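Incident log, structure service

09:12 report received: a user says their structure output differs between two submissions of the same chain.
09:20 pulled the input from the user's history:
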Amino acid sequence: MISDILDSFRLEPGVWQICLRLLCAMVVGLVIGTEREYTNRPAGMRTHVLVALGACVVAITGQMLHFQYNSGDPARLAAQVITGVGFLGAGTILREGASVKGLTTAASVWTVACLGIAAGFGYYPIALCGMVFMLITLTILEFFQHRLPGRNQSHEEDYALDCVDVAAALTAIHDGAQTNRAQLREILAAKQEGGYRVTFRAAFHGAGAKKRRERFFAVLAANPHLTAVQQGKERV
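09:34 re-ran on a clean worker, output below:
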């Protein structure tokens, strides 16, 4: 019986097979999308379901065109989905200061599309097993990821800089923040006698946060465009 089912996948899919493949793709998108929805990510349940269903429809269409018109490789349409869905995933990526958020959700949208293609070609074990391992990655591995040594380190500091050239000072601040993976907030520049005073707050998160904060301060203190650098109550 199983061999008969597998043999049927090599033939043009019938209505029940199409519905079964779409249902499989919908389940994959629903399960992964529910996890993303629960964790309040940019792309949630409906987005993942639609991506999986769309990829599945494209895969089925490519297979049917192959059998009906002998159009060559049935995977050509599916290959365009893998490329095109990257633009949808890019919409979930956000940049906040020196950090980037949404990469995991973008990857989940792309992977759901791949699983939808597998379902569309009738490879149910690939689609369902891929869904299980994907869910493990998004849940269980996240639990361990947040418990890695140094993961939860966090240092936040206020800074005050005296300078003559505001543009050069801001360039030095942003370059130093990018190099040391710092998030900048509340950047203000005020004119004072002999130049300007620039104040801001920098936050350092993750492993090595303390060392990156020290390197950031040292880079600013050594910059020739800054006449004075204050970190907390310390002054150079």
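09:41 both user submissions now match this output. Likely a transient worker issue. Closing.
09:42 reviewer note: The radius of gyration is 26 Å. Residues 2-145 form one domain.
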